[in-house]
């Protein structure tokens, strides 16, 4: 596997300023951040940064905006504990530390010219949004785009305004499902796997990109394989506990791979025999 080259500037914590925040759901908040001195983050879709909250600690967070957005970038953060909780207490104007970008993102050059089936569960839409936005901004470089989104209830839907726009687009096939419907939900109900049998795909030119909670992968993979998507055309992104984010501490190791450096995006064909990975 090709190693990611980490630039010198990526070892240091860069200072950033929060430009804007938006509470998306009870637990998730969106942060728009600009690096000091107008520095650009230069991330690829699917890469992550280590966010530093001074005096508290660091946490890996995927960049959820596309590199086509210049001047600032966005993070969608779930309040899960110490660092993310402290981050939720920050507002526009506050300072934040950023290391990175790190890891291997989605393989854009390989995806170009092909159809994309993007499958996101829950918070998985955050990293996938960076690719979705990139593909929209470079629409002619990609074939058909299918987006399948699943979450527990409609209260957990992230980026709701954008989802409505995706639904209206003629050049995108977007579907959304919830596990449990409240009275105001008139859309699809069922787990994300229930959306997949109905999608018409030209399998030889389709790449499936799947991001979601660990429990989702096994079931989605089973459906994709049933649909005859070749194993080397299935791309997955993983979350592992991380410390350094750049291949030094071993915290994120899966057998001989470091999730932070060899991933978080992997080709299914490369990891399918690693039971720990899935
Ligand atoms: C590559 C990568 C990308 C990520 N992207 C996002 C993102 O875009 N948005 C987002 O909200 N979260 C994301 N996460 C998860 C996020 O890093 C963790 O929720 C965060 O590190 C928790 O830190 P904390 O100090 O707030 O929680 P802690 O107080 O340390 O722990 C609280 C709980 O979170 C769990 N936890 C800690 N670290 C992780 C981890 N790395 N993955 C999963 N659970 C963890 C702990 O087991 C514990 O149950 C990502 C993780 C990785 C590895
Ligand atoms: S987080 Fe340290 S090696 Fe991956």
Descriptive terms for the model:
single chain, 278 residues, alpha/beta, Elongation Factor Tu (Ef-tu), domain 3, Rossmann fold, 2 domains, 7-stranded mixed sheet, 6-stranded antiparallel sheet, 30% strand, globular, binds flavin-adenine dinucleotide, binds FE2/S2 (inorganic) cluster
CATH architecture of the largest domain: 3-Layer(aba) Sandwich
Bound ligands, each once: flavin-adenine dinucleotide, FE2/S2 (inorganic) cluster
3D shape:
globular
Kindly report the spatial arrangement of strands forming the biggest sheet: 10-9-8-7-11-12-15
* Low confidence ranges: none
The counted number of beta strands is 15
Largest sheet: 7 strands, mixed
Mean pLDDT: 93
The string of secondary-structure elements, in order, is EEEEEHEHEHEHEEEHEEEHEH
CATH class category of the largest domain? Alpha Beta
CATH topology term of the largest domain: Rossmann fold
How far is the N terminus from the C terminus?
Answer: 18 Å
Helix percent band: 10-25%
How many alpha or pi helices? 7
Rounded to an integer in angstroms, the radius of gyration calculated over CA atoms is 18 Å
